[in-house]
Amino acid sequence: MIVLEDMKLYRIGELAKIAGVSERTIDYYTKMSLIIPETRTQKNYRLYSSETLNRLERINQMKQEKYTLEEIRAKLELWNDVTDETDVTNKLSALEMHMQQLEREVKELEPIISQLKPGQANRAYTHLVPQSLACIEAIRILLNHGPFT
């Protein structure tokens, strides 16, 4: 680790170890512009900031939520456009991402649900559906018809 003007900077190996990913992954993400080195050493080694660690955590979280790397890059680019409404934008983006994840999970469950016996399906829907639908509908209204459109 190198400290430059009160900023911790990490070489690729250090960053990979702390983030729990391989050096090849760091290289690949850099080539895809998912992460960007803060600076370079005199010998042209890339140095990454602590913010890169946060970005890698976001990338890993979105990968677990089954986003493609291209979708992740698009989301990260949106997050880079910081506005005065940053908090609201971040929360709405997080809600949108979560809804997309839920939609993916529902699609994955559809084949399983279609194989349930009628009694099993009714029990599952009775316990989960009313509250979930109300919550999803409220979020959709906020995103589509709220003061932000």
TrEMBL record:
<dbReference type="Pfam" id="PF13411">
    <property type="entry name" value="MerR_1"/>
</dbReference>
<dbReference type="GO" id="GO:0003677">
    <property type="term" value="F:DNA binding"/>
</dbReference>
<dbReference type="InterPro" id="IPR009061">
    <property type="entry name" value="DNA-bd_dom_put_sf"/>
</dbReference>
<keyword id="KW-0238">DNA-binding</keyword>
<dbReference type="InterPro" id="IPR000551">
    <property type="entry name" value="MerR-type_HTH_dom"/>
</dbReference>
<feature type="domain" description="HTH merR-type">
    <location>
        <begin position="9"/>
        <end position="78"/>
    </location>
</feature>
<keyword id="KW-0805">Transcription regulation</keyword>
<protein>
    <submittedName>
        <fullName>DNA-binding transcriptional MerR regulator</fullName>
    </submittedName>
</protein>
<keyword id="KW-0175">Coiled coil</keyword>
<dbReference type="InterPro" id="IPR047057">
    <property type="entry name" value="MerR_fam"/>
</dbReference>
<keyword id="KW-0678">Repressor</keyword>
<keyword id="KW-0804">Transcription</keyword>
<feature type="coiled-coil region">
    <location>
        <begin position="85"/>
        <end position="112"/>
    </location>
</feature>
